[in-house]
Amino acid sequence: MTKFEELGIDKNILKAIKELGFENPMPVQEKVIPHLLSESNEDLIALAQTGTGKTAAFGIPLIQNTDFSKKKTQHLVLCPTRELCVQISNDLTNYSKYTDGLRVVAVFGGASIENQIKSIKKGAHIISATPGRLLDLLNRNVINIKEIKTIVLDEADEMLNMGFRDDLEAILSETSKEKNTLLFSATMPSEVRQIANRYMKDPIEITIGKKNSGSDSVNHICYMVHERDRYLALKRIVDFFPEVYGIVFCRTRIETKQIADKLMQDGYNADALHGDLSQQQRDAVMNKFRIKNIKLLVATDVAARGLDVDNLSHIINYNLPEDLEVYTHRSGRTGRAGRLGTSIVVANLKEKQKIKLIEKQINKKFEHLAVPSGKEICEKQLFYLIDRMQNVEVVTSEIDSYLPTIYAKLSHLDKEELIKKFVSVEFNRFLDYYKNAPDLSKPDDTRRSSDSRSSRNVEGFTRFFVNLGKKDDLKPASLMGIINDFTGIRDIEIGDIEILKSFSFFEADSSFSEKILKSFAKKEYKGRKVNLEIAENKKSTSSRSKSKDREKEGFRNSRKSFGSSRRNDSKPRNRRR
Ligand code: AMP
Q1: Could you tell me which residues come within 8 angstroms of residue 43 by beta carbon, excluding any fewer than 6 positions away?
Q2: How far is the CA of 186 from the centre of ligand 1 (A)?
Q3: Strand 504-509 to strand 494-499: parallel, antiparallel, or no bridges (unpaired)?
Q4: Which of 207, 235, 269 is the last residue of a domain?
Q5: 429 is in which domain, residue-wise?
Q6: Rg (Cα) of the chain, in Å, rounded?
Q7: Residue 7 C-alpha to ligand 1 middle, in angstroms?
Q8: Strand, helix or coil for residue 315
Q9: Domain assignment present for 213
Q10: Over the stretch 32-60, which tens digit does the pLDDT of each residue have?
Q11: What is the 271 CA–ligand 1 centroid distance (Å)?
Q12: Is 212 among the domain residues?
């Protein structure tokens, strides 16, 4: 195995990284550091997931290639989020603990620009920046990047996903042709390739692991369910993994809010992270999650980007991302730092093809499992409870004084009875909740047909009004065609369609509501301007009572705690569990 000492790293940097606990170089470091420390000055593309040690791979050479006799900016690192930007700057400062005179400055949006300007004016050999704020500072002539030696595009795919393409191009065009460009990306979609083709000179390409592949430390599980059972399945899965600590990915802000709210109402230790939160709210949620006050973070891809937590046990794809490449990013957030992780997909029956495409992309097969039954969950929780009991620390001094009374009260019970009773105190509630719970993986058709409408209204269908009807020659098939064409998505699950004379109603999977509304705006059909609105849901009495039955499984009125992912109201909420 190669040692750090063999990579040509300066002794002061070696001393600092040893103190950080870096014993041996990680694969990306082994490949990238010698290349950047050589005189070759070739551009480089490194395909590496987050968490693979890429910050040190580019950071160590940047420090070593800095001319401390000059005050001007020599290297620029661009990254997608404020959190990553700060982390990079902190990491570089740590690596240069014993390197005198290095100045690293982080510039990012959502913080005082004046303070950042002051820091830059004191001198910034290396700037770590988010593209928007950097452009702002360039426009104010605070930073000069015309003569930088190196530009690093970190998480390039994420920057493009987040819509920074124009900013990146504007920044790159300000730099000189002689500079060295380093591009780090977990995936290589065509947009990244285009940037590379346009702004890099014959880059050498390094791949850590297989291209676009998922990490070996992650196993991938798929639960197939009916669309209407998606939320119930999520709760079953969470209950089946009592130690779960992970992110539940949703597709839209609205869905994120809805699912987080439902989980919280149902007594789970969850919260939401999405773009509607202020930076302060966002920081507060992230901090609670980092210290495990929150066990389930329900998030959109964009909002979760800045979150750097290495010890997640699970990633749950409540809905698959529209761009399937994003699955690699999501699943790469677990199974880090030598741990094993699990990436779970809850998919509906129409998403089978997508699962196959992801399998090709990650070069791994999903394990297809049935959604855990009530009985399986009860068993799992029971043994989790027993394990906790076995491992609990007994603080004798605290309970000693109560023991004589407790012994006296329980003296009529023998050992077996005593165990049964203690276990039942916690476990009966679980048995109660899961009594008669339906099998979500093999839904029986009677149940489906009898309550399909009610469950749709409850479980994620939105009813739309559209100003097209029979007089426009509209038929169910043509309406579905219009939805496909306008949205550009072919597999939106459509519920009831009601075509009337001059207008119609249809139900569609709520997770696509925003997309449907947006894509219908300013559209015409057969020369008529289309008007689409969300309609009131039908509320027949029978459907309401049936929906109540289904929701019963949802612990709606219970805030009691079983597994650690559920809140225990007997404890203060903010206590670490
Ligand atoms: P990164 O991909 O740069 O975010 O790094 C992921 C994690 O690995 C960070 O916590 C680093 O501090 C850590 N790390 C990076 N390089 C090494 C190394 N050679 N040995 C041990 N840990 C490392």
Answers
A1: 180, 181, 182, 183, 200, 201, 202, 203, 204
A2: 16
A3: antiparallel
A4: 207
A5: 375-434
A6: 28
A7: 16
A8: strand
A9: no
A10: 999 999 877 799 999 887 778 899 999 99
A11: 28
A12: no
